[in-house]
Amino acid sequence: MIDEFDLFMISKHLFKALNQDINIEIVIISNTPKKSMKLVNLCKRLIDLEASIYWAMDDSLFTNEDYFAIFDKEYLICGSKQSIYENPETLLRSKNDFFNGLAQSSQRINLLSGNIEIEFNVDKSIVFAQEYITLKWETKNTHEIIIYPHGWEVEAQGFKTIKINEDTKFTLEGKNKDKSLRKSVFVRVLKENEIDFNVDVYDSILKDFIAIEPTLTEQGLYAAFLNQRIKLTWNIPMIGKLSESKLGKLTLKGSHEFILNQNETFLFTFKSINKTQTKKISFKCFYDESFFEEDLEEGLKTEKLAQKQALNRQKWASYLIRIGVKLFNIFKKKK
């Protein structure tokens, strides 16, 4: 009678004895029905040499570790101190009877072999970060089942629910004494980026739109001239629904053009499975001469300067592009 660890410790001596045609019976004590693939391979070699091996699940025996061996029905070796017997023969016969009874009540190890069957699937193959998925499996004719990349040792059938944050390939490997088989599933995790919008204004000289940037003082605040044509464009590569407080429901890829005749504000909302994002875009409407008006109200000077700088960048960009067009036309005429 022995446990799995001690069996490995004396395995070399067992092989030598079996090769000399010595009959060996082994009862392995455990507190679980699971057998490691390393143990399965060792038992296969011992059984091939005609050893008889039994598997006994007993928490008390496993905890007490009162292991022993009997040789030729005459010699007894115990791993722990025994009670005092007047006659040593009585102890030997007691242990022998106990072993025989334990062997009869235990399960004889018959190692599985042949083809392995595996069903392995996941309930969702495309998810967002922090979302839960459930892996489910069922195997037949296997001694050992491991799910990678986490190295989970699992039962022949079952399920596992986990939270996932990145693209992951899950592989279930089943083994018996002769064969191994793998089945894999892949789960893609969509990354949720912040929604973004492009803002362009129309240049009547170039007859085209040019991009503008927000003011330095407030994210999402833009400066533009009265009656200037403005275009908002967006392309959201995520799964969800987009809407705007005044425009209503919108497609995930699109644009909106309007003429600025007053201060204007847009409030966009994007709803996905995991969260809701909002984006505020505001426009400050200016006449040309407003640059030169002195704003004496406390707290507005910095904003006025920032809005002026934004408009100046817009005018300079337009001016440089016009120069480029003129030079191109001059060189074209010379040719």
Structure description:
The chain is of the alpha+beta class and 335 residues long. The chain has three domains: 2-108, no CATH class; 117-190, Immunoglobulins (Immunoglobulin-like, Sandwich), CATH 2.60.40.10; 197-334, Immunoglobulin-like, CATH 2.60.40. It is 25% helix and 40% strand. It has six helices and 23 strands. It has helices spanning 4-9, 11-19, 37-48, 59-64, 88-105, 301-334, and strands spanning 2-3, 25-30, 52-57, 68-71, 75-78, 107-108, 117-122, 126-128, 131-140, 144-148, 152-153, 157-164, 168-175, 180-190, 197-203, 208-211, 221-225, 228-235, 241-244, 248-250, 253-260, 264-271, 276-286. A five-stranded mixed beta sheet has the order 8-14-13-10-11, with no helix packed on it. It has a five-stranded mixed beta sheet with strand order 17-23-22-19-20. Strand 2, helix 3 and strand 3 form a beta-alpha-beta unit. The longest helix has 34 residues, at 301-334. It starts with a strand and ends with a helix.
